[in-house]
Amino acid sequence: AMKLQSPQFQALFTPGLRSVAELFEKKNYELRIAGGAVRDLLSGMTPQDIDFATTATPAEMKEMFTSAGVRLINNKGEKHGTITARLHEQNFEITTLRIDVVTDGRHAEVEFTTDWEKDAERRDLTVNSMFLGLDGMLYDFFNGYEDLKNKKIRFVGKASERIQEDYLRILRYFRFYGRIAEKTGDHEPSTLQAIKENAKGLAGISGERIWVELKKILLGNHVNHLVRLMYELDISQYIGLPLDGNLEEFDRVTKNIQNLCPKPMTVLTSLFKVKDDVTNLDLRLKISKEEKNLGLFLVKHRQELTKAMGPEPLRPYQDFIMDSREANTNSKICELLKYQGEEHLLREMQEWTVPSFPVSGHDLRKMGVSSGKEIGTALQQLRDEWKKSGYHMDKEELLSCLKKL
């Protein structure tokens, strides 16, 4: 048996957790850390959020917490068996062990159990199916720890059964593969077969849920390998990707953006050939307006908006920003530079502050230009001169320029 005593594990024992543990112990209910947090702790990481599992039913937990004067937060999770208690400024999400009774590929009806193995059995991947006692004892019914050490991603039990309980698990398989696996192509053939046979089930999953997973896949490792796999296994068509995605461009861009922290949409757009591809993605996945606009921007400008030859390679991008009337053009240009793999220019761009045009209509009136139309024309001419100078000319130089004009 394995007992964990890492600093990351010790650090979880806040005053809040100590109080929670005490309450459960008093009542003889078992309480363990579950799922992703166990995986993270075993990998030597500090988990972002921690789920707890218990043998106590929601009713028993409510009774226990209420009589101890503990505040309970929203009870939306209650019918799935989840109670959220707040102690010492910290929320604790605790779920009763459960068995899926009926599943329809999207959600399950559950009944409660006190059997830890039965609960582990209905989880998706072996690396996500472990429990950790508060004494550091590991409870691992499906060799999850072995798989984690060997960087293997496997479904709990039969892949096809797990997938049919919730088709989104296909994408979760890819996401954790991109997070944990060391090399590409390390899949069990039977798993890929099960994914291919059940790909169509993704058609019934909401776009919002798919987009959450897909974004994480796009920012993980092996993204090139995983997206190609989505095409090979006939998944792509059910999740809004173009039927004939541009995989050569995708290859190129995934190499360009390594280490540049692109937005998910920047990576994905390389698959798109035309702007309809962005629109179709949006129809299926309900992406945000900002994401959609970034996709359209990249499809439109990725070819012709490129660096200049000569001493000022950044100039075309700067001119574009200066001519633009939109607020977040700057961040879109940065994404374009990542897409193009222009690492040095990206750094320069991030240090560049957009200069403000030094002359106003007020200055021109002081110089005796009175009619609004003339002021408009003069300002435009000066703006052009200013642009030609690389935005270096100051107010004096520009106004003396006006005298010449």
From TrEMBL:
UniProt keyword Magnesium, yes or no: yes
Domain of life: Eukaryota
GO BP: any one term: mitochondrial tRNA 3'-end processing
Cofactor list: Mg(2+)
Family designation: Belongs to the tRNA nucleotidyltransferase/poly(A) polymerase family.
CC per GO annotation: mitochondrion
Keywords, ordered alphabetically: Magnesium, Metal-binding, Nucleotide-binding, Nucleotidyltransferase, RNA-binding, Transferase, tRNA processing
Molecular function terms from GO: metal ion binding; nucleotide binding; nucleotidyltransferase activity; tRNA binding
Domain Poly A polymerase head stretches: 31-154
Domain tRNA nucleotidyltransferase/poly(A) polymerase RNA and SrmB- binding positions: 188-239
Recorded coiled-coil stretches: none
Annotated organism of origin: Himantopus himantopus
The keyword Nucleotide-binding is annotated on this UniProt entry: yes
Protein name: TRNT1 nucleotidyltransferase
PANTHER family: CCA TRNA NUCLEOTIDYLTRANSFERASE 1, MITOCHONDRIAL
InterPro entries to which the protein is assigned, alphabetical: Bact_CCA-adding_enz_type3_sf, NT_sf, PolA_pol_head_dom, PolyA_RNA-bd
